[in-house]
Amino acid sequence: MTMPVYASPEQFMRDRSEYARKGIGRGRSVVVTTYSAGVLFVAENHSPTLHKVSEIYDRIGLAAVGRYNEFENLRTAGIRLADVRGYSYDRRDVTARWLANAYAQTLGSIFSEHQKPYEVELCVAEVARSVGEPVPAPGETRLGAPGQRDQLYRISFDGSIMEETRYVVMGGVTEPVASAMEKSFRAGWDLPTALAAAVSALGAGGEGAPRKLESGQLEVAVLDRTVPERTFRRLDRDLLDQLLTPPSAEPAATPAEPTEPAESAEPVGPAEAADAAPADTAPEPGPPADEQQPDH
């Protein structure tokens, strides 16, 4: 009778983590970053219908990488949970932090109790309601209140959760993508600049030389704080082409040839001015001959 193979709990968890990381690393990367008008999601995705980025609630969006069937189950469960909470209490009670905690508890239970962990990584983002009021300090949290800063939460396969303030990179080979985002990130940048930086960072991922990604290879969406209610919207291919096309440089104007300054005339006196009168100036006509009186 053979003895069963014994594995320590540490080795067991280490093997499960390695298994989940390998599954996530085989996918393509996703970048989530803040910009001046909200939150930007950029994913390398060749499928026009199998989305990695989706809307969860009014001001909340979700980005996911890994096995599609697994994060699609989590997406639909999150939508149902948010709808029930918003209906039972108030729509303002549905926040990114609350949803991220719910996802973290679910993934943590699956990782420790199920035979196979989920091969997924999630990012829950919430756009601030207003930017016209003071933003809370880094240690202060005022979820649901006007003037809050944009919220980014990264949830890993084992239920660990991290809050990010600038950007999140998930899936694939993350080191070169994160390094490129670290170099190019600027607080308060506009949408075209943020989109160009995210696309360039995604092209830096993988092996070999950096790639140039076209609009047909991208899935892009935003949480736009200028919209009053449902802030999530997708950017179609035509709009992506406009945003990714750099403005054409206007041709430089040909400098005009310098003209020689006219020679300054020397000042003349009254007598010289009288002599300088044109010679062909006719004298004023006198009275007619028949009206002239004879000399006495």
What features would you highlight for this structure?
alpha+beta; Glutamine Phosphoribosylpyrophosphate, subunit 1, domain 1; 32% helix; five-stranded antiparallel β-sheet; 296 residues; disordered C terminus; 10 strands; cytoplasm; proteasome; threonine-type endopeptidase activity
Please characterize this protein's 3D structure:
It is a single chain. 32% of the residues lie in helices and 19% in strands. The chain is α+β, with helices and mostly antiparallel strands and 296 residues long. The chain has a single domain (23-133, 145-243), classed as Glutamine Phosphoribosylpyrophosphate, subunit 1, domain 1, CATH 3.60.20.10. The protein has a five-stranded antiparallel sheet, with helices on one face. A five-stranded antiparallel sheet has the order 3-4-5-6-7. The longest helix has 21 residues, at 68-88. The radius of gyration is 36 Å and the shape is globular. The model is unreliable at 132-147, 249-253, 270-279 and 288-296 (pLDDT under 50).
CATH architectural designation: 4-Layer Sandwich
Cα end-to-end separation: 170 Å
- How big is the Rg? 36 Å
SSE pattern: HEEEEHHEEEEHHEEHH
- Binned strand content: 15-25%
What top-tier CATH class fits best?
Alpha Beta
CATH homologous superfamily assignment: Aminohydrolase, N-terminal nucleophile (Ntn) domain
Instruction: Note the total helix count.
Output: 7
Structural class: alpha+beta
The largest pleated sheet is described as: 5 strands, antiparallel
* Domain module count: 1
The average pLDDT is: 82
**What is the tally of beta strands?**
10
* Biggest sheet: strand arrangement: 8-1-2-9-10
CATH fold descriptor = Glutamine Phosphoribosylpyrophosphate, subunit 1, domain 1
Helix content: 25-40%
Q: What's the shape?
A: globular
Q: Any low-confidence stretches, pLDDT <50, length ≥5? A: 132-147, 249-253, 270-279, 288-296
Region (Disordered): 242-296
GO molecular function, one term: threonine-type endopeptidase activity
Protein name: Proteasome subunit alpha
GO biological process, one term: modification-dependent protein catabolic process
